[in-house]
Design goal:
- Its cofactor is Zn(2+).
- The chain is of the alpha/beta class and 255 residues long.
- The protein contains 11 helices and 8 strands.
- The strands form 2 sheets. It has a 6-stranded parallel sheet. Strands 4-5 form a two-stranded antiparallel sheet.
- Helix 7 runs parallel beside helix 11 and helix 9 runs parallel beside helix 10.
- The two termini are 24 Å apart.
- It binds ligand BV8 and zinc ion (ZN).
- Zinc ion (ZN) binds next to loops.
């Protein structure tokens, strides 16, 4: 396996050729895309940040029903982390690539943060929703409430209430067991199937149906390239893998 340092010093030839020749690029990103911005991923072994919370358990309607205040506190803390974070060089590289004349680059993200947008990229689909789009858990109306600034892992915070029906306000994210926003998922799947190149960056490929997107592209003969320091559930579907971190690999690829 090429060492990370070598890998990011020069882009693997086959990957560079695929990127240079691609007019339509679809980039599927996961939590690893934001790791170098200091946002903890879901499944990497974390020190500190997630020790007290099991993301898969808290990101669920069951947890919300059981204890709104604990779930709201967890999201308020994550929102505070994201607000304090900055897009990394990987986000910036994708935004620059997207602005390149002759390139049609679709960002399809599983991430609920807004770091792609803050780097200047247009995001085609947030397949797991967005942290900062709040809505009423009872009547589904959008809410203009905001997360309080939270500086550390807190136990409980009462969520704001809907100005119309008085229901609790929830994050506009897709919880485990909830359906993905159909328009986003279909747009992401179509972009992958019609691309000249699909780049899969920073995802363990474990969460469905988002994880099927690279496979949908591969089934159409679209070249799939994985950028991830570690092997994942997507690796075997990739035509090329680049074991490198996103914030080092993507700037080299887009240079
Ligand atoms: C649904 C929003 C049906 C919330 C998230 C068995 C088989 C298949 C499916 C299932 C199953 N059992 C249950 C299911 C369904 C379930 C699922 O897939 N479960 C899995 C875990 C088994 N899926 C669902 O429930 C989905 N809904 O199926 O609904 C339905 C249909 C109709 C009607 C009703 C219902 C909903 C899934 C969405 C869940 N919400 N997020 C929130 O954020 O709080 S998922 C969550 O995980 C995040 O969105 C995250 O993005 C996503 C995926 O994780 P990754 O992004 O891949 O992150 P992870 O930590 O796993 O990996 C990080 C990677 O980065 C690693 O590979 C690491 O090596 C790499 N990395 C680290 N550093 C870097 C790096 N890479 C590059 N550079 C670096 N520097
Ligand atoms: Zn309401």
């Amino acid at each position: 396996m090429t060492s990370l340092t070598d890998a990011t010093d020069q882009v693997p030839e086959a990957i560079l050729d695929l990127a240079r020749g691609a007019a339509r690029v679809c980039v599927l990103t996961g939590a690893g895309m934001s790791a170098e911005s200091g946002i903890p991923t879901f499944r990497d072994v974390q020190v500190g940040l997630w020790e007290r919370f099991d993301p898969a358990e808290l990101a669920s309607p069951q947890a919300w029903e059981r204890d709104h205040a604990q779930v709201w506190a967890w999201y308020a803390w994550r929102a505070s982390l994201v607000r304090r974070a900055a897009p990394n060089a990987g986000h910036e590289a994708l935004a620059a690539w997207q602005r390149r004349p002759g390139v049609d680059l679709a960002v399809v993200t599983q991430n609920v943060d807004d770091l792609h947008e803050r780097a200047g990229a247009e995001v085609l689909a947030h397949v797991h929703g967005s942290l900062f789009t709040l809505r009423c858990a009872r009547c589904d109306r959008p809410s203009d409430a905001a997360y309080p600034e939270v500086t550390g892992p807190v136990g409980h915070l009462d969520p704001p209430v809907c100005g119309v029906c008085g229901g609790p306000v929830r994050p506009g994210v897709v919880w485990f067991g909830e359906a993905l926003p159909e328009a986003d998922f279909l747009a992401g799947a179509d972009a992958a199937r019609e691309a000249d190149l699909v780049l899969v960056v920073g995802t363990s490929g474990l969460v469905h149906p988002a994880a099927t997107i690279p496979h949908l592209a591969g089934a159409r003969g679209v070249p799939v390239v994985e950028v991830n320091p570690r092997e994942t559930a997507v690796s075997e579907a990739a035509d090329e893998v680049w074991r490198a971190p996103a914030a080092e690999a993507l700037p080299a690829l887009v240079a």
